[in-house]
Each structure stands twice: as structure tokens, then as C-alpha cells.
Amino acid sequence: MTDSDTTVTSPSTFGCSRRQLLVGSGVGVLGVASMGVLAACGSSSSGGSSVSAAADGSIAKLADIPVGGALAATGTDGKPILLVQATEGTVTAVSAVCTHQGCTVAAGTGTLTCPCHGSVFALDGSVTNGPASTPLPSVDVHVSNGTVFLGKA
Ligand code: FES
After folding, report:
1. What is the largest CA-CA distance in the chain?
2. pLDDT tens digits for 26-37?
3. Is 144 helix (H, G, I), strand (E, B) or coil?
4. Structure pTM?
5. How many Å lie between the centroid of ligand 1 and the Cα of residue 99?
């Protein structure tokens, strides 16, 4: 393989700046380390305010969930959920997979809204405005010492 055979991929393909990609190339002789840099670029570019479950089932700090609103999260199965704190100190969760056609319902204050066709759900997952006609399924969570965990207590 010659230099002319090399395929150059735009840094933006990976969600990285040119500088991040150059740093990754410099570490590239270590192989795995290079992949770690690229993975880090991808995660940092995803943006948003979503949290993911840790190996111990913890998923968020209670303080990170707005009172009267929701926080977007990803469960251990990789599916989106919404952590809801309708009243201070009480956390519930619902699936963020819209029951209409499967788009991801957005976290919001007071209501949860699907960006695809405009269905609106109450914080308990019930439908307040279609086209969705069935509620968002609930997800078991519990709070322990200010940390929210997936599953029942
Ligand atoms: S997929 Fe959510 S309203 Fe259609």
C-alpha cells in the first residue's frame, strides 16, 4: 500500500476536530489507545443532556433531574428512558420510545413531547395529545442516598 492508496476521512466523520484526530494519530502506534481517542471524540460530540446507566445500575443523581420535569437517560439495554421528578424527591421513569411510531420522546418540563408527530405525554407517561394513543410504559427505578438506580428497591 502506498501513500496514494490511503483513504482520508474527514475528521467531522468522527465528530472530532482536526486537532483531536491528529492527537489520535500520534497515539496510533499504540493501536488500542488510538481507538480510545476516536471513541472519546464520538461521545463528546454527541451533545445533549442524557445520562447512561452504570454497571451498578445507578443512572443519575437526584439533583440532576429537574423538579416538575424529566431527564433523558439510556438504560442498560441501550433504550432511551426518561427519569421524571414530578414532585421533589420522588422519581419515576417511563420509556422514551414513543408508542406511536417509535421516535424518542424528549424530556421536558411539565410534559414529554415526541418530536416526530407531536404526541404529548404527561409526566406519568399518559397521553395528553395524540396521535399516540397508548401511554409510555413505566420503568422501575428507585432512589437511594440521592442516587437514582434502575430497578425496584
Ligand atoms: S412517533 Fe411519536 S408522535 Fe409519531
Report:
1. 63
2. 333 333 333 333
3. strand
4. 0.68
5. 7
Residues of the chain with CATH 2.102.10.10: 51-150
3-state DSSP helix/strand/coil percent for the chain, to nearest 5? Answer: 25, 35, 45
C-alpha grid cell, residue 12: 467531522
Cβ 60 under 6 angstroms from ligand 1 = no
**Which protein residue has the closest C-alpha to ligand 1 atom 3?**
117
Q: Is the CB of 114 under 6 A from ligand 1?
A: yes
Q: Which atom of ligand 1 is nearest to the CA of 119?
A: 3
Encode pLDDT of 89-114 as tens digits: 999 999 999 999 999 999 989 999 99
CA 27 to chain centre: 29
Q: Is any atom of ligand 1 closer than 6 Å to the C-beta of 115?
A: no
What is 51-150's CATH superfamily? Rieske [2Fe-2S] iron-sulphur domain (2.102.10.10)
